[in-house]
Design a protein that fits this description.
about 675 residues; alpha/beta; Oligo-1,6-glucosidase, domain 2; 26 strands; glycoprotein; alpha-glucosidase; GH13_cat_dom
Length: about 675
Amino acid sequence: MSSHRLVALPVKHERSARAPGCFLQSDDDDDDDDDYVSSGWCPKPNAAKSTVELRGQAQPDTEWWKTAVLYQIYPRSFYDTDGNGVGDIRGVTAKLQYLKDTGIDATWLSPIFKSPQRDFGYDVSDFLEVDPLFGTNRDLEELFAEAKKLGLKIVLDFVPNHSSIEHWWFKQSELGVEPYRDYYVWHPGKPVAGQSRPAVPNNWNSVFYGSAWEWSEIRQEYYLHQFEVGQPDLNFRNAKVIEEFDNILTFWMARGASGFRVDAINHMFEDALFRDEPINDPSDPLSYGYTHHIYTNNLLETYDVIGHWRKVIDEFVEQTGSDTVYGYERFGWRRAILMNFIHFSIMLTEAYTSMDMVLRFYQSDDGSEQRAHFPFNFVLLGELNGASKARDFKYVIDRWLENLPRGKVTNWVLGNHDQPRVGSRYGEERIDAMNVLLMTLPGVAVTYNGEEIGMVDYRDMSWEDSLDPQGCNVGPEEYRWKSRDPQRTPFQWDDTFNGGFSTANKTWLPLYPYYRQNNLRKQLESDWSHYKVYTEAVKLRRHRVFREGSFRSKAFDEHVFGFVRYLKDDPADGSFMVVIINLTDEPSEIDLYDVYDSIGDRDARVYLVGTESRYKINQVVDASRLLIGPYESIIVGNDASSSFGTITGCYRLIVASLALVGILMKLTYL
């Protein structure tokens, strides 16, 4: 199976003193710097004009996830089919064709498992049962089956750090019943003279504000909860707990899950000695920022568990996917063929932490242990915003790509249910630019439902309507700035009652008040809209130059950032695409030869523009003098770029045909 990797081509290098594994290659371009060619772990670029060049293996890829558009669905807010004001699994199934039409490859579902819903599903009381609020296990299996018919993958949220206090494990642990006694993190506390109840064990605080310790009258000990008080932390130093989650992974893979997003993984282990953490910000002793989290975050044991779960997933795939005979024996050959019994599951990790700690989720330092297929890359969420300049974009993007371990697939997360929406974080005028950027960078694009139509946060939501514990815990004066409710409002399908989301008199969260002005139906009926820019960008990323091409970026000035994707190493093709975004309201004239000097005398043609562009698609432009208007987003390429993945498509057809022949040959021996 071929691999799609961003690696350095074999070239003669002069060893740089900058860092081991990073080489400085002299160039003959007009700028003052040399070009960096990544060969492993490299330092940040030190000038806005430096050129980071990551060269890809120009081969088609047979693994669906490596260039996928992964679309997060927050089920509560997506589509309600039973009229209770809350979205459900059948609502996702009903909208699968919409996802297919939009160009989505896979969807990641936020938690749908049984839960008292104190943290909207992240407090799980049964990891093997769908919550009745969303439907049934049968509904979920039907979703898997219908998605498969359309060629879509379903990725589930996997929440191992904690459970709900309503989980059977916790109830038994609280009673001291074996084998559950040590399933959670318990501590007797610190004795206090003259008091019957001991003090909390240490100064650890919850992400949701206040102490991370809660007293149990039943067990007469404290339990740890790094999040909401109803979310006790599981004890992963207990091998039986790890085994429980092994079984959970296998259970859902066997029913059709194509992957798992592992939530809050960096909180999985805590210091076994329960030491106080050093003070960070003494202004509020109850806030999460009060301490440096050196004993509750990013402990090295976490990576061992992720490596173990990768083996669990890979072994399941090997048994049920690579060995197709296993599928025939289990399901019968007719059903196996109908099911396209070639299974491939992936594991993604979520950890808001430093880049070096995030990158360790790919593999061990020596590469001997494989871990996540990819850890979420949050640099577009956490390090850039509406005030960022072109050089900031270049620095952040180049630094990530330079440090990407050899042979690993990158990804870019532009939105999720915990972070402000693109239009609220970057400004509504930059929605097209950011979506175009996301869809044309190398690797996996991770997007959030509603971003395709430019939904924005409902920051003026009333205190009475607010439900998020992260906001409610800080009170009515500060909730607006802490709550995640504003980015979780229902999807705006049309301009009818409740935006077409639900027929209920009251939805679980109120809709954004201006949904009649901004909704999917209106954007579909418009000549050009955020949605149409988004879908055209998704179509363009299917082009071979975006799937397999090399990458080189440029900060043209403080306003305009751009990069080129090209197939220079394939002389028969010679395709290139230049992506340009203006981050400000200042127009700028740029020369595309500054980022890619191999344009030659060929015409540069416009392939995509934003909603406010002066250019038209298919317009021929002067590559040496391209005027970029305020907040402009534009993709320009050469005529060779008009062949959309023909070679890749033919290759895939050949591979599929050979696979079918192989299956038929095997059937003759069954």
